Amino acid sequence: MREIKEMEVCPDDMLPYILVGAIAFIVALVIGFLSGILYRKKVAEKEISSAEEEAKRIMNEAIKSAENKKREALVEAREEILTERNEYEREVKERRSDLQKQERRLQQKEENLDHKTELMEKKEESYAAKLA
Fold this sequence. Notes:
Elements: H1 15-131
């Protein structure tokens, strides 16, 4: 009978090309994997940096807002103090005026009493002179 020749899966002269291709494929996979890791790391770093910048921006805005509110509160407090001071001074001036009016009235009453006392003394003198 005839000899059956075994079929080779891979001829011997193709084997080096297949090995080089497989090694190149494995190397490409490793390089691709490492490149992917590096790319993801850079993307994550950019996202973190962006988030940090956003946080700084928000903090700066909050600080500015707080400073503005503080300034507004100080201005309002100064205005309130000025209003209260003016009100106080107006009340003091009004009280002084009232006191001066009362003093004038008292002085007039005193003068009237002095005048009446003088008149009474003159009448007494004239009665005393008439009786004597």
